Amino acid sequence: MPFFQSDRGNFHYREKPGKKPILLFLHGNLGSSRWWEPVLARLPADWRGVAYDAIGYGDSDRPQGLERYSVPARLRDLIAVMDALTLEQVHLVAHSTATPVAIEFALMAPERVNTLTLIGPVPAAGVQTPPEAYPLLERMTSEPDMLTDMLRASAPHLDAEGPEFARFLADAASLAPLTLPAIARGLDAWRPGDRLRRLTLPVMIVRGEDDIMLEEKEAHLTLLAIPGASNLEILHDAGHSPMIEAPAGLTELLIAFIAEDWDDYENIRHSVS
Asked: H-helix or E-strand containing 145?
């Protein structure tokens, strides 16, 4: 398995070889780079795809300390990944709790992001985890029934009796106990506000039709908050995790979106201050 060492830690990643375009995939809360394998396998032959295990997940380092899981810290990790793999420009694809990291990178370095795809994104208004949820998050990885219910809720169209579900469940169960509550605290502190008006690059928002974690109203409000977001794509037979529930449909959306001619977006960029 490929790894690289950086000043941010030791990272594991998966890669589909190719040249251009280059797609960089960020996984969400219960996931790992494994979740992107069905999409990587379906990319066109000459396209390159890279998915990495975030710090605390998969086979990447698992440091202690809440500060390593904040949005700014995960942003620095993303920069380290791109620099280590010499990814100068990418089509950035992020899922769920990773979407704030992708948004912050696109705001900080728009010249390095060709397009941005947000799948089941954290709403533009932000989120606030109820205090009573934190003890549950702290216990979740050590309680198989609770973790199973959470994965089923995240991916309701994935066969819960199949081998893929078992592998994803084992990955989630291996998380350090602090990971899930630390990610939640990082999201509680994230408030993009009016800065989203600066996202004038091409943005696609994707929501699974049966997503119980991102309400359709919240998805539409996020769409309206981002000038570059021209469409909200709804995937049937998918909940919050279409990359493992409906990978063929999601890959088709990505290919069509990335292959589109984006010259008209220059007008948006010049019209928004």
From this structure: helix 144-154
